[in-house]
TrEMBL record, chains A, B, C, D, E, F:
CDD domains: SDR_e. Belongs to the NAD(P)-dependent epimerase/dehydratase family. Keywords: NAD, Oxidoreductase. This is NAD-dependent epimerase/dehydratase. Gene3D superfamilies: NAD(P)-binding Rossmann-like Domain. InterPro entries: Epimerase_deHydtase, NAD(P)-bd_dom_sf. Residues 16-183 form the NAD-dependent epimerase/dehydratase domain. One of its GO terms (molecular function) is oxidoreductase activity.
Length: 286, 286, 286, 286, 286, 286
C-alpha cells in the first residue's frame, strides 16, 4: 500500500504504538504513520496482522491479557488506540476488549510513563440523540448499546487518568471511516482516510490536550456535531461527503421516519438487535 | 432496630428488592422499607446478612454470578440497588461488583420486566471538581478513582436501558450517609438516614423519571451540588448538617489547601492512593 | 364570599379590570381584588356574571367585539386578564377568544395608556416537555394544542407590546388553580387561591417587569418548572400540594407510563383528542 | 425565465406545492422547483399568477378559505409555503393570511398526510434583538410587529404539529431574498436566489428535521445569526453579500444610531409605523 | 455597642484585620468580629476611628500609602476589606482609594503570606442590568460609574492573585447594608447586619474558596441575583426585607419607569450625575 | 513603507486618531490607515515617532497627561487606541499608561463627542485559561498579570461608557500581531498585519457595535477562542498561521507540559516573573 498525501506535520516520535492495526482503519493508517516515527509498533488480536515491514515491530496481543499489554506498551512514546471491539457485540466480548483491555492499556501507560493516548471512541457514545439535533462534547452521553457504553467508559477512564495521573488523551468520537459514505446518515458522519490521518496527527502533536473530546468527521455539509470545544486541537478537514451525495441519495430516496435507524444518530445500533436477547436464565418478560 | 419516622408516602409495592442490605446504609434502610411493601427481599454478598424477618426474603448473592442475580431479581417490582463495592478498591474488585454485577442486574431487570431501579451512584463520579465549584447533573463526569469510574459506568448503563429498553432509573449520587458529618467536607455532602429514606422513596414513587440523576444530600448550608434538574422527583430534605457544624469545625479548624483532599469534592479518593500501584509487570516510570 | 387572608400589599390602584370574572379562578379572585383598589371592574362573556357589588363595575363583553373591549378597558389602571377560553376547544373558539380577543385587549390598553397587564398564560405553552424535565422560562415553547398555542401567541404579543410600545406584562403560566390537587401531576402544578392572589398582586406591583414570564405554582415538593428568571417579581408561595399527597396518591397508585398524559407536562391536553378531527373537507389520510 | 444553476439534489418528489408563487421569491423559485418534481403545483391569492406551464398545476386560493386550501393541498408530497402576507400590514390582513390561513394549511396537511412543510418564517420573529447581538434559534422570540408575531405563531404551530401529529417542518427565518443587498443591514441578512434554492431543497430532503428553525442568509461576512443548531439540515451557502459591499456602503456611509432601524435587527419594522394607529374607538392616550 | 447574636462559627483566628472600620458597616461589624479572634486590628483613613478597646489594635491608614498599608497588614491571618471609597466619587478619589489602594493591600498580603481576603465588592459592578433581570456571578460586568468600575477591577485583581499567587478571595457584591430598606429597590438589595456577619464569617471560614463571587443580600422576597454559584460558601440568610415592605411601599407607591433609577439595578448610580462633568479642558460636545 | 493590499472598505473618515503609532503594530497600521481618512493623526509617547507625512498630524503625548490627551482627541471622528503599555511591566507603569491614561482618553472622547473607539485589549485578559480550553467573550476574565488586569479594566470602562454615555467600543483581544508566528502557541494566537487591518476597519465601520469584544487572530487551524458573539462585526480573516507551522514545529518539537507557559493561554505572562517581587517593605513571606 502506498500513501500519496504528504505528512501533515513534521513532528516526529521515536516509537508510536498502533493498536487494532489489522482492522479497516488500522490497515489504512499503518503506512501513513511511518512518516511520523522511527519505529512503528503495530498490534492486533488476530494473527492475520501482516508481518512487520522495515521500521516496524509486530505484536499479536489480546488486550485482556494484562502482561501482554504491558509488553506491547513498553518503550512507546504515544499510542493510537484503535484496538478492541469496534462494533456492537455481546456484552462479554465488549467487556474483555473494551473495558478490561482498556484498563490494562492505561495502567501500562501509567506505569511506563506514556504521556498521551489517542483513543478511538465512537459516535455511539451519543447514539440516542436524534438526527435533527446538533450536539457538542459536553452534552451527556446517550450510548446506544454495549459498544457505545464501553466507549463512554473509555472516555471517563481517560478523564480519570488525566485528572489523577496527568496522562493526556484525545478521545475521538469517530463517525464513519470508510472509502466513501454508503447511506444517508454517513453524509453527516463520514470521515475520509486522509482526514482521519489529519485528525489523529493533530491530536498526537497539539501542545496541550488534557482530556479532550472531538468528533471525527470530514468537512461534510450535513452535520450532527459541533466541534467548537475541540478547536484547540487544530484539526481542519479537507474532504467532504458531498461529492458522494448524488450517488448516495439515488440509492436511498425514501427513508422511514419511524425506523429508529432514521431517527437517531446511532442508526441501526439503536435497534434492540441480537445482543439483548433473553438468555434462558430469566422467565417471561411481564 | 425500630424506625420512628412515619412513612413518607402511602404508595405501596408488592415486592421491593434491597441489595447491599448488610451494609451501613442498607442496614438502616431495611426496617424502613418494610412500611412500603408486602415483601421485602434483601440481599448481600456476605453471609452476615441478618436472617429474614416477617415479610422478608433473604438472598446471599455475588453480583458477578449472573444466574444468582436472575433468581434474586425474579418477581420484584422495583429495586433499590445499594449493592456492589461502595468504596475505592482494586480494579478487579470494582470490575466484578460494580460493572459485571450491574450488567447482570439490569439484564435481569430487563428480562423479568422490572420497571424502575434506584441506583446508588456516588459523588465520586464527579470527585475531581473543586470544592469551590457548584455543579449540576449535566456537568461531565470527573471520576476520582476506579470506584467513581464504575459509578459513571452505571449511570451510562442506566441511560442506555432507558433509551433502549424503557427501564427507568434514578441515579442517586450519594454524598455521605452516616449518623453525622465527621469532617469539614461532610458539612456539604452529608445526608441523614431520614433524608435518605425520603429521597429513595421519592425516587421510587415519582410518576415519571426516565433516567434522572440527583445528588443525595440533606438541606445543608454548605453545598457543592445544584439539584435543579431533579426537582421533578419531589425530594425535599428536612435535616441539615449544620447542627453538627460547631462540633466538626472544632476538630478541623485548619485545613491544608494544598492537600487534594481539601481541594477536590472527592476528598481523599482523589489521592493516588494504594489502588494505583506499580504491579511488577511494568518497568520504571519515565 | 368572604376572604380571610390579609392583603399581600398595601399598594392600591384606582381601578383594576378583572376579565374572566365569572370563571373558576375569577370568582375566587374577585372579592380578594377589592382590597387593592377603589373600583373593581369585572367582566366576562357570560350573563351569569354576578351583579356588581359596592365598588364594582360589571361588563358583559365578548372579547372578539373590539368596540366592547375598548369600552371595557377605558379608565383602568391595570388589567388582570383571566378572560378568553381557558381549556382546549375548537380552533375557531380559541381564535376568537384568545387571539382576536387578545389583540383587541392590547390595542385598547395601548390606546388608553394602560401601563401593565397580568396575562393568564398557561403551562400548556410548554405541555410537550416531559414530566421528568425541569424547564425554565427561556426554553422554547412546545404547546400541546390550540389552547397552548394561543397562549404562546399571547406571550409573544406581550413581548411585542413591551419592546415596541412600552406596555408591561407579566405572563403567568398557570399550573392548576383549584381547591386542591386531584391527580398525581397536580402535585407539581397546583397553585392555591391564596398563592394565586400572592402571585398576581406581586406581578401587579413589582417596580419593573418589562415582559416577564413566571410559572404559577405553589411551594410544591414535586416541581417541573424553575422560576429563577422571575425572582425579581417577588412572588413567594406559602402553600404546598404536599398536604394532599397521601389523598392523591391513594387514588392514583399506578400510572401508565405509555400514556402521553403521564409522560408529558401538559397531561391529557397532549392527547390528539376531539379537537383534531377529520372534518369532511379532506380525504383519507395517507 | 431560465434557470442556469444545476439542481442541488437528485432527490425527486411527485408533486410539490409552492404557495405564494406570484411573489418576488416565489417567481424566482418556480422554475427552479420543476427540476425536483414530476408536477409542480403553484398557488397564490392573486389572479396575476402566471398560467400553468408544462408539468404545472395552478391554483388561485385565498388561504383564509379553508375548503380551497384543502383542495390545494390534496395530493401533494411536500409544501414550500411562501404564501400569506410577507410584510407588515394591518392586523386584520395578517390575521387572515398568516394565522387563519396557516392553520388551514396545517390542518389540510394533517388530514391528507403531507409529511413535511417548509415554512417561510422571518427574521422579524426576532426583530427586536439589537444589531450588535448574535442570536441563535433557541433565543426567545422578540417580534417587531404583527407580521413578525404571525411568523412566531407559525413556528409554534409547526412545533405543535410535529409534537402532536408527527408532521415535520423546517421554519426558515428568511433574511432578505433580493437580487442584491440594498442597504447596510442587508449585508448581514441577504440571501441570494441560488442560496435560497439550496436552503429550501436541503430542508425538503434532509432525512429527519422534526421541527427545525434555520436563519436564511448567504455566506455573508457580517452576521447576526448563529445557525449551529441547524447544521443537520445540510445547508451550505455559496454566495456572499460582500461582493456588493462597496456599492452599498457608498450609499450609506453614515447611519443614525438613535434610529431604531439602525439599532435593531428588524430595522424599519421596529418603528411604530402606520399599523399601530389610534383607531377612533379609543380615547386619548394618557 | 453590644452585640446580641451568638457567633455564627466557632472557628477562631489569631488576628483579623478589618479595614474601613469607621464606616457604617465597619462600625457594626467591629464588635461582632471580636468573637472570632484573639486580636482585632481595625483601620480606617479617618482619625475619628474610635480608640482601640481590649483585644484591639488601631491603625489610621491612607490605602494609597503603600508603606502604611504594609505595616497594617503585617501579622494578620485574614482581612475583611471594607476600606476605600464606598460610593460614587470623582475618578481621582476612586483611583487612589480603590485601585492604587487595593493593589497595595494585595501586594502586602502576598508578601506577608496572608491566605484569604474578604473583599467588599458591590452590586454596582453590575448596575446596568435591568431590575427585571435575574443575573448570576458569571454574567459579564456592567458597572454603573467609577465606583462600580473600581470594584470590577478589584474582582479581576482578586482572580489574578488566586490564579497566580494562590491567595484566596471572596468578593462580596454587597447590596444595601443598612438598618432597614428605605426604598423599593432595597426590598431586593437589602442585607441586615446579622446576615452580613453570617456572610462574612462564612466566607472567612469556608474550607476552599479560590476566588468566589457572591451577592450580599438577605433572604428577600424580591430578588435580582442568583447565588447558585456561591452555595459552597455556606451562607444562608435569616432576615428578610419583607417585614419592612408595607412601610416602604407606602412611601413609594408610584415609580417612574422612565427614570433610569427605576429601570436599572444600580438605581441612582446609573444617572450621569455630577462625576461626569465637562471639566473645562475639553470643548463643546458635538 | 508601502502598502500593497487594497482598502478593505470604501467608508472614509475625516480624521482618525491612531495612538501608539510608533509601536510595532502602530508602525504597520499607520500607512494603511491613510487610505481611510482625510487626516491621520498619529501619536505616541516617544519622540522617535516619525515625522508627519502628507495628510498626517503628529502628537507626542504621555497618556497620563490629561490636558495633552484632550488636545490629542479634539477634532477626531474615531480612535484606534493602540497606545499605552503593551507588555507586562511594573504596576506603576501599567497604572499610568493603561488605567489613568485610558480614563483620560475616554473622558476626552466623551467631552468632544467622539462616537467610537477601537480599543486594543489583549488575550492576557484571559491568560489563565488553559490551552486545551476554547473560550468565548462572555467567559469571565482571568488576567495573567498587571498588563492583562489593566486590559480587563479597559473593557469594563468601555462597557461603562457605552451603557452610560453611548460611546461605542470594540475591544479587540489581540493575540500576537507579528510578521510571523515564532512559537507553538502563536500558531493559535497569530494575526497577520493584513488581517489586523481587516479587523480594525471592520470594527471601525460596522453599523452598530455598542461594546463588543472580539478576539484578534487570523484564520488559524489551532484555535483557543470562539468569536461567534462577534460575528456582527463582519471580520473575516484571510491569512493563516499554518503556512508557518512546519518552521515553528521544527524549532519546538518538545514542550514541557508542567511549564505554565505551555499550560495556559497567556504563556510566559503567567509566570510569576520579575514584576511581583518582594519590595523590601514587607517581611518574609510565610
Amino acid at each position: 500500500m502506498t500513501v500519496e498525501t504528504k505528512p501533515t506535520t513534521t513532528i516526529r516520535f521515536h516509537r508510536i504504538l498502533l493498536t487494532g492495526a489489522a482492522g479497516g482503519v488500522g490497515t489504512q493508517l499503518r503506512p501513513r504513520l511511518k512518516a511520523y516515527c522511527d519505529v512503528l509498533r503495530v498490534s492486533d488480536v488476530v494473527e492475520s496482522l501482516p508481518a512487520a515491514g522495515e521500521g516496524e515491530e509486530r505484536f499479536v496481543v489480546n488486550l485482556a491479557d494484562k502482561a501482554a499489554v504491558f509488553k506491547m506498551v513498553e518503550g512507546c512514546d504515544t499510542i493510537l488506540h484503535l484496538g478492541g471491539v469496534s462494533v456492537e457485540k455481546t456484552w462479554e466480548e465488549i467487556l474483555q476488549g473494551n473495558i478490561v483491555g482498556l484498563v490494562n492499556l492505561y495502567e501500562a501507560a501509567r506505569q511506563y510513563g506514556v504521556k498521551r493516548i489517542i483513543f478511538a471512541s465512537s459516535n455511539h457514545v451519543v447514539g440516542f440523540y436524534r438526527q435533527d439535533q446538533v450536539i457538542n462534547s459536553r452534552d451527556p452521553p446517550k450510548p446506544d448499546g454495549f459498544y457505545g457504553l464501553s466507549k463512554a467508559f473509555g472516555e471517563d477512564l481517560a478523564q480519570l487518568y488525566w485528572d489523577k495521573h496527568g496522562i493526556e488523551t484525545v478521545s475521538v468520537r469517530i463517525g464513519s471511516i470508510f472509502p466513501k459514505p454508503t447511506d444517508r446518515r454517513m453524509l453527516a458522519t463520514w470521515m475520509s482516510y486522509d482526514d482521519a490521518e489529519r485528525l489523529f496527527m493533530a491530536a498526537m502533536t497539539a501542545p496541550l490536550v488534557g482530556h479532550s473530546i472531538i468528533f471525527g468527521m470530514s468537512d461534510n455539509k450535513t452535520v450532527f456535531w459541533d466541534n467548537t470545544n475541540a478547536k484547540h486541537i487544530g484539526y481542519r478537514p479537507k474532504d467532504s461527503s458531498d461529492v458522494f451525495r448524488d450517488e448516495v441519495e439515488a440509492k436511498f430516496q425514501k427513508l422511514d421516519l419511524n425506523d429508529v435507524a432514521t431517527r437517531y444518530q446511532g442508526a441501526a445500533f439503536t435497534r434492540t438487535g441480537p445482543f439483548f436477547q433473553d438468555d434462558g436464565l430469566g422467565g417471561k418478560k411481564a
